[in-house]
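Dear support,

I submitted the protein below through the web form. The confirmation email said the job was done, but the results page showed an empty box. After a refresh the structure appeared. I'm attaching both so you can tell me whether what I see now is the final result or a partial one.
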Amino acid sequence: MKPGDKKTLLFLLGAALFAAGLCAPDAARAQVKRVKSEESLFLDLHKTGLGQLNELDEKRKFIETIKLEKQKIQGTMLNNVYENAFEYYKRGNYEDAKDLAAKILSIDPNNEDAQMLLEASNQLRGSLRPGMSEKLMIEDRFRTALSYYTEGRVVEAHAKMQEVVKLSPNNIKAKYWLAKMKEDLKEYYFEKGSEEYKLRDLKGALDNFYNALLIRPKDALTIEWITRVEDELRQQKANDQLKAALEYYAQGKLMSAYQGLRRALEVQPGDSKAGRLLAEVKAEIESGFIAAGKKLYGSRRYPEAIGEWDKAKPYTANMSYLNNLISRAREQMKMESAEKKRRAEEAARRAREEEERRAKEEEARLKAEAEAKRKGVTVEEVIKKPAGISEENRLASQQHYLEGLKYFQNSNYEKARDEWTIAKQLDPGNADTTAGLKRIEQILAGGQ
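What the results page shows now:
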């Protein structure tokens, strides 16, 4: 069994225990008193074992699922408990009716039916003649409802008469007046919605029209007004988002403008003005990232340049262009890395050759000293200076080598070869020119 399945099973088990504690109308009073602890268990069940979930999103989804399921089950259970409490009330057992109503309110403080039953049970509890007391209480509420209605307080009159009908379901007179008040209440909400609409309070108007629709769900005129107000409310929200986006755009805050325009289009997808502006903002954002990337590329900061071009991708209309820029940067990185490796190897080779030359010179010097000592002559007489290039030619050769090196670094291999050829002619023993010419022949032949 998966961790999520185990938690759901624990949740449903807790819900079942909670239901068992509340839904037995003839159970002993001790059974009812255990409801609080069982409700606490039920409410805290979503905390059980959450440490086993590794992903934060998974935990959030699980908790939201628990909350939704808890609300559904809790609503069903509280309705059953209310029915049991009302059954106690009808039998004249006001004490138990009061206790169960209070228990419902401890879980759902906004439960109007439980509040009504609690007040009625408290009012009738301890009465010597419960039947007569109940009749007087119902009559008093009936008169109060009519009084409200006469004064034009339709909402309060409807609510009070609704209490009379709930407490006395067989009261025909109360049902008649409730139906009459209900029609007036629908008109009240409709007129209030119309007034709010004239004042351009679209949200207030919509709330009132929906209240009217709850009373008469199939009223065509109410539905027509709700449709109109919802359309205007959506347009108003879209306009507000568009206005805020334009302000951000004027301030140069392109990202904030982009987010605002997206929200505007979510509210009103067909808004052409927002659509055009969004395209312009995306193009500017993309251009900014591309320019930043090119600047970094020019400074040979290739990974950072690629990062900027990657950021431009969500805003581009030309993905192939960005991919080409990124490919070029990666290729340049490879080429420079290879050249860096070659230079390091070349420097190491030169260092080895220099070390070997010095070793040979030291060996020749020691031999010359030994030979001079044996012959009884000076070291200078033993070492005959061979004919060679002049110092002027050697310096000229080195100068041509350096010029060729500049051409080589700029990939102008023909010019580099010309310079190094002259350098070699001036100083055939220049190892740098020999190595350079060999490297150019490899490149021109297709090798790296």
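Response: this is the final, complete result; the empty box was a page-load delay. Residues 319-375 form the longest helix (57 residues).
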